[in-house]
């Protein structure tokens, strides 16, 4: 018998509001016999949830959501062209309760539109996702940074998906390169992959493409956001207390209709469980500190 079609909207609503609880399973033992559950713990301070409240998804729902997401991603252009207003978030790294905190600040979908810059659940499942975005023809957004191979936006549009991330070249650089205040032009990257680039590269890129700002993620910054190249580039990192090891804040950038940018900050909590998800790409370089003064616990 074919599985019923997945109701994505209903599933998203459950994830955002903690619709089902452990109590329901206890009251209905037959549910346990029919399906395998995965548990996602929801922040106790959000949406009226009590401590320990959880969201339950069947294995079929998880699989169906992944397949539906893949279908949606492949229908979208690889270079998104978006309009303000919207919120931009950096790395999440699977910190689900902090994602809900961001929604609490910025408005739960569909009340507000969001652009996430990658590293949602560490480093898996990239091969169908869009690679970059341009907001109102003025703000260029990507996960990592610029590439010496990038001469025009049409090069990004020609990348075919699904695709694995290569070790060199345009796609690799858009996901892995980093700005460096001590570099002019292009430099070696301590990650062992891609390049670093200086403020001069940022200015040339913006002038060539008539852009105002580069918005990227990919590095831990102490205050959740950090400017570079005289505010021509901003790094966002949206996972506070990253991996339970850092005292960094999480940042989110709001872009209004006039392209005025403002920042919302998630302060690091006093206590955070230490964890680190190790995905199939765990051998790739980890997300480094951008600000060397960021405190490690």
Automatic annotation (TrEMBL):
Pfam families in UniProt: Metallophos, STPPase_N
Domain Serine/threonine specific protein phosphatases: 57-270
GO cellular component, one term: nucleus
SMART domains xref list: PP2Ac (SM00156)
UniProt biased composition (Polar residues): 278-297
E.C. numbers: 3.1.3.16
Record field: catalytic activity: O-phospho-L-threonyl-[protein] + H2O = L-threonyl-[protein] + phosphate; O-phospho-L-seryl-[protein] + H2O = L-seryl-[protein] + phosphate
Annotated stretches, region: Disordered: 276-297
Domain of life: Eukaryota
SUPFAM superfamilies named among the record's database cross-references: Metallo-dependent phosphatases
An MF annotation (GO) of this entry: protein serine/threonine phosphatase activity
Cofactor: Mn(2+)
Keywords tagged on the record: Hydrolase, Manganese, Metal-binding, Protein phosphatase
Assigned protein family: Belongs to the PPP phosphatase family. PP-1 subfamily.
Protein name per the record: protein-serine/threonine phosphatase
């Amino acid at each position: 018998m074919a599985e019923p079609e997945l109701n994505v909207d209903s599933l998203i609503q459950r994830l955002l509001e903690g619709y089902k609880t452990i109590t329901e399973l206890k009251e209905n033992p037959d549910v346990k016999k029919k399906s395998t559950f995965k548990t996602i713990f929801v922040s106790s301070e959000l949406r009226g949830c009590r401590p320990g409240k959880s969201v339950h998804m069947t294995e079929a729902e998880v699989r169906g959501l992944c397949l539906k997401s893949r279908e949606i991603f492949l229908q979208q252009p690889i270079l998104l062209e978006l309009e303000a207003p919207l919120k931009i978030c950096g790395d999440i790294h699977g910190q689900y309760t902090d994602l809900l905190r961001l929604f609490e600040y910025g408005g739960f979908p569909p009340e507000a539109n969001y652009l996430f810059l990658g590293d949602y659940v560490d480093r898996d499942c990239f091969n169908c996702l869009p690679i970059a975005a341009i907001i109102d023809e003025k703000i260029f957004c990507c996960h990592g940074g610029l590439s010496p191979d990038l001469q025009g936006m049409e090069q990004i549009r020609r990348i075919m998906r699904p695709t694995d991330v290569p070790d060199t070249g345009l796609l690799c650089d858009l996901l892995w390169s980093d700005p460096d205040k001590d570099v002019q032009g292009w430099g070696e990257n301590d990650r062992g992959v891609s390049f670093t680039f200086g403020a001069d590269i940022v200015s040339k890129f913006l002038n060539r493409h008539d852009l105002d700002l580069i918005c990227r993620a990919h590095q831990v910054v102490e205050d959740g956001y950090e400017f570079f190249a005289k505010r021509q580039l901003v790094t966002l990192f949206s996972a506070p207390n990253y991996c339970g090891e850092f005292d960094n804040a999480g940042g989110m950038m709001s872009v209004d209709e006039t392209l005025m940018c403002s920042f919302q900050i998630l302060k690091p909590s006093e206590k955070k469980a230490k964890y680190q998800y190790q995905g199939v790409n765990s051998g790739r370089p980890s997300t480094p500190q951008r600000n060397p003064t960021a405190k490690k616990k």
